[in-house]
Amino acid sequence: MTYCHCATCKKLSGGVGTANGRVPSGAIRILTGAEFIRTYQPDEGTAKSFCSVCGSNLFGSGWPDAPTASVRLSAVDDPFDGKPTMHIFVRSVARWEALPDDGLDRFETRSV
Q1: For the chain, what is the HEC assignment?
Q2: CA distance 50 to 75
Q3: Which long-range contacts (CB under 8 A, 24 or more apart) does 37-42 make?
Q4: What are 5-53's pLDDT values in tens digits?
Q5: For residue 49, what are the β-bridge partners?
Q6: What whole-number distance in Å separates Cα of residue 53 and Cα of residue 93?
Q7: Whole-angstrom Cα distance, residue 69 to residue 24?
Q8: Which phi and psi angles does 9 have, rounded to 5°?
């Protein structure tokens, strides 16, 4: 799980970025409301999927066509173990934005 601070995630979230977990795309099961999911393909980067009814940011990294997808942690309703372990794309952190002193690894782009 990661915090992403890339420019696209900032725009999608309306804030400082997104918190994501990587999973195989085939592991994602939409139980209801699949007809409401829309996908946006930015000029750069991978497709982002969201709910056209409530606007919730659901998936990134090319879901459902890519082998793996980023699930927005805020889209998971049930409690789960774990938490993000790093911040990625910190090169895009705004001057007014302060990253928390959480001890997590930070990467200018993607993690290694």
Answers
A1: CEEECCHHHHHHHCCCCEEEEEEEHHHCCCCCCHHHEEEECCCCCCCEEEECCCCCEEEECCCCCCCEEEEEHHHCCCCCCCCCCEEECHHHCCCCCCCCCCCCEECCCCCC
A2: 10
A3: 42/8
A4: 988 888 888 888 899 999 999 999 898 999 999 998 887 777 889 999 9
A5: 39, 59
A6: 30
A7: 6
A8: -65, -35
Distance CA 48, CA 90 (A): 20
What is the residue whose two structure tokens read 């996908």? 39
Residue type, 40: Y
The residue length of the chain stands at: 112
